[in-house]
Design brief:
Elements lengths: L4 H12 L4 E10 L10 E4 L4 E4 L5 E8 L1 E8 L6 E8 L5 E7 L22 E4 L1 H6 L7 H4 L6 E3 L7 E3 L7 E5 L2 E2 L4 E2 L17 E2 L9 E4 L13 E5 L10 E7 L3 E8 L7 E8 L1 H7 L7 E15 L5 E15 L15 E20 L3 E21 L6 E26 L2 E18 L2 E21 L2 E14 L7 E15 L2 E12 L3 H4 L17 E15 L2 E18 L20 E21 L2 E15 L5 E3 L6 E13 L3 E12 L3 E2 L4 H7 L12 E2 L3 E13 L4 E9 L7 E7 L4 E6 L4 E9 L1
Parallel strand pairs: 1-7, 11-16
Antiparallel strand pairs: 1-4, 2-3, 2-5, 5-6, 8-15, 9-10, 11-12, 13-14, 15-16, 17-18, 17-43, 18-19, 19-20, 20-21, 21-22, 22-23, 23-24, 24-25, 25-26, 26-27, 27-28, 28-29, 29-30, 30-31, 31-32, 32-33, 33-34, 33-35, 35-36, 36-39, 37-38, 39-40, 40-43, 41-42
Length: 770
């Protein structure tokens, strides 16, 4: 027996030393025309392995050991870029789409994403890999953005973002470059009134499985972005694998996911990518399990179909749709009731969908055209009933609301490169939108359209200086009789100076405009049910940013940005007794007549240091100090609702390898944000009228405590010959810190109560890719 021991030991250790491999491949194309670049050099930093792109601009690395990689792509006459944080797992190819621009002087060994940045300042790429790696993102790109400087979530329960002190209502969601309605499940999550918002929700309906690198913009926007003043999350879709069929299955507290991608046939490069998800809480709810009296359900389906066309073009069909509901039922033991909400039965239901087409076509060797058309819509209902403690049956109706919204968006953009130093872009956006909310037997509706042409000219003045000059126009009109149309010109300009090989200075300016929130347009005044705010024109904003960037090596960089945003034509309460400013609103619809005479001022300094995932470690440290104020009807300047004064975020992680097939990851995120503001509650009159009444109702003079939240994510990746598995545990608010959300008068407790945000939230997930 002993003589066989060495043989058994060899077999045993060999099984642990087994190496698993997979493929990294992709295409290198011209960033302006989309034409393939033949003969580009693609090199893997690890091992110094390189290859040359073929006739279709394709490259391929087969039989690579699973693990982390970084690509460097060079081509004569074009910029050199380095693409970090490529994760290669067994059972799944990693397909990279690279876009190169004609060369100009650039940061030495700059590490960037595969796509050209869309702006000189205040732009951050969000990758699918980040959403899987960062702690407590719940696979939501908007929650990744809270790691960036100057960005905070309005509430733990939702992904509505406060960007540089702006209300979440000033943020715009885009899909494939065009505006869509709010793409989130449970849009009422985390609000004081429990009513839906127009920009956030509990879970993004679009599955991360479909996302390519998306762009998050927080500053002066290039000319192709309009009808927005605060921030943009522009989500882009990746195409499915066009050579082999692949599957992904995942189970977590968020839900069960199943994704499939692959070619339609062996003889075609057309591909599909589809994902379906059903909430795990929904299955538990069907079994009678609830969470704090609430039963939450959601499900969604998303897809992207890709069809290559003649002469290097591409045609895609994409879509997404989701259903969600949230039912709050009070405990049957009425002696446990402590808060006013516990005597209510609240039923929320929501649905959202979007679908569209894109067409990309190179035109010769210098030009290209891209056309996108998309339609999106949502519908939600919320019913609240007072529960009789004696019978536990619904009695008085406390609320019965319905909201529907839709958008039809069209865009066509023409790119033309005059020469290596000059590029020209021109396009047109057409958007028609509708919002309806029946109330008091009246159908309150807003119907609006916008026409937004734009032009942008980029010119390399010198090898170290590049400029961009653009002009955006916004022509808008509400279809109501008393509504005012507007024709607004918005100049945009930016300049970038490459001071040295590793230092860069940039300056950006933009004038921006945004239509009002539907809740502002449909707000009534006094005893009448007639709308009083259809005369309002868009809010406008001057935004200027001075930026500095320094790289230290191929994976580390420091960014500093000083900014100022001056808003004008802001709707504020139209008389001295109403102090409301639209700057402070989220889901509210105050009974106020507004006038476009208010202003808002935000200025601050942001800093971020980023180390990409190299040598098994990554880190992103970001912070900002800022001041956000507004001016009311009386010309008095006040601190705004979202003027928290500072943000700080530390996002970091370490990967540990165990053998050749195991990766352990430990990831942490720490958020420390200055407390937002709330309105002072008039406790005496609230007690008399048995509802929450505010003193000087539009003034946010109460400073909430600072917000502090540490998150943790631990994962274990295990590779096999034809598949890989990931077991992960996310812990949101691992310290259980009680962060303040808002204050209100609770009838049951007969006093002013502070409502806290979420405590410790554990999310266990298991992912299988094959």
């Amino acid at each position: 027996m002993l003589r066989f021991l060495p043989i058994l030991l060899f077999i045993f250790t060999s099984s642990f030393a087994q190496t698993y491999t997979s493929t990294i491949r992709g295409t290198v194309r011209d960033a302006d025309t989309g034409s393939p670049l033949v003969g580009a050099t693609v090199q893997l930093v690890q091992g110094q392995t390189g290859t040359i792109t073929g006739p279709d601009g394709n490259f391929r690395f087969d039989k690579l050991d699973v693990g982390r990689y970084q690509l460097t792509v060079t081509y004569v006459g074009y910029e050199t870029i380095s693409i970090p944080e490529i994760l290669l797992e067994s059972g799944k190819e990693n397909v990279v789409q690279v876009r190169l621009s004609p060369s100009g002087r650039q940061l030495q060994e700059a590490t960037v994403s595969a796509a050209r940045p869309v702006a000189f300042n205040s732009v951050q790429p969000i990758t699918m890999e980040q959403t899987f790696r960062y702690a407590a993102t719940y696979m939501d790109p908007a929650r990744v953005a809270t790691s960036f400087p100057g960005v905070a979530a309005a509430n733990d329960q939702a992904n509505g973002l406060v960007i540089r002190g702006n209300s979440p209502n000033s943020m715009q969601w885009r899909l494939e470059g065009v505006e869509i309605v709010n793409p989130n499940h449970l849009s009422n999550a985390g609000t004081f009134s429990d009513r839906p918002t127009s920009t956030g929700g509990g879970v993004n309906i679009l599955s991360t499985q479909l996302l390519a690198t998306s762009s998050f913009l927080s500053g002066p926007f290039p000319a192709q972005y309009g009808n927005v003043t605060g921030g943009v999350l522009d989500m882009n879709l990746r195409k499915g694998n066009d050579e082999q069929t692949e599957f992904t299955a995942q189970a977590s507290v968020l839900g069960f996911d199943i994704a499939a991608e692959g070619p339609f046939s062996k003889n075609s490069k057309a591909s599909y990518l589809v994902n379906y998800r059903y909430s795990f809480t929904g299955l538990l709810g069907a079994l009678g399990v609830s969470f704090g009296g609430e039963v939450i359900n959601f499900q969604d389906l998303s897809f992207n179909l890709n069809f290559p066309t003649a002469k290097g073009g591409k045609f895609t069909v994409f879509g997404m749709g989701g259903l969600s509901d949230n039912t709050y039922t009070p405990d049957k033991d009425t002696t446990t009731w402590e808060f006013d909400k516990e005597g209510q039965n609240i039923i929320y239901k929501g649905s959202m969908g979007a679908a569209g087409l894109t067409f990309d076509q190179p035109i010769g060797s210098r030009a290209s055209i891209r056309t996108v058309v998309a339609g999106s819509g949502l519908y939600s209902t919320r019913k609240a009933f007072l529960v009789d403690p004696k019978t536990l049956m619904n009695s008085d109706v406390l609320g019965d609301e319905q909201i529907s919204a839709s958008k039809i968006s069209f865009n066509t953009t023409f790119n033309y490169r005059l020469n290596a130093k000059q590029r020209f872009k021109a396009g047109l956006f057409l958007t028609s939108q509708q919002f309806e909310t029946p109330r008091n037997y009246f159908n309150e509706s807003v119907n609006a359209w916008t026409v937004q042409p734009f032009v942008n000219w980029s010119y390399q003045v010198a090898p170290s200086v590049t400029t961009e000059i653009g002009l955006h126009a916004m022509i808008s009109k509400l279809k109501e009789e008393d509504a005012k149309g507007s024709f607004l010109l918005e100049p945009r300009a930016a300049i970038k100076w490459q001071v040295s090989d590793n230092q860069q200075l940039s300056l950006s300016y933009g004038l921006h405009s945004q239509l009002q929130s539907p809740n502002v347009y449909t707000a009534t005044y006094g005893m009448t049910t007639m709308r009083q705010n259809m005369h309002l024109t868009p809010t406008r904003s001057h935004h200027i940013v001075l930026g500095y960037q320094q790289t230290f090596n191929k994976s580390n960089s420091l960014k500093l940005e000083a900014y100022m945003q001056n808003q004008f034509d802001v709707p504020v309460g139209g008389d001295e007794s109403t102090k409301y400013s639209a700057i402070n609103l989220i889901e509210e619809r105050p009974a106020v007549r507004f006038e476009n005479v208010g202003t808002g001022l935000t200025y601050g300094l942001e800093a971020s240091f980023q180390k990409f995932l190299t040598n098994d470690f990554y880190m992103l440290v970001s912070g900002s100090i800022y001041d956000a104020t507004y001016e009311d009807m009386n010309g008095i300047r006040r601190a705004s609702r979202f003027g928290g004064r500072h943000t700080f975020s530390l996002t970091a992680g370490k990967e540990l390898k165990s053998g050749n097939a195991n990766i352990w990851g430990i990831n942490a995120k720490i958020l420390w944000i200055g407390g937002f503001r709330d309105r002072p509650v008039d406790e005496e009159y609230s007690r008399i009228l048995q509802t929450t009444l505010y003193s000087n109702s539009g003034i946010y003079s109460v400073k909430l405590k600072d917000y502090f939240r540490p998150d943790l994510r631990v994962y274990w990746k295990k590779s096999k010959a034809k598949y890989s598995r990931t077991l992960a545990l996310d812990l949101q608010n691992v310290s259980g810190t009680k962060n303040e959300a808002y204050r209100y008068f609770d009838i049951r407790q007969d006093k002013v109560v502070t409502q806290n945000q979420l405590g410790l939230i554990p999310v266990l997930s298991y992912r299988w890719e094959f």
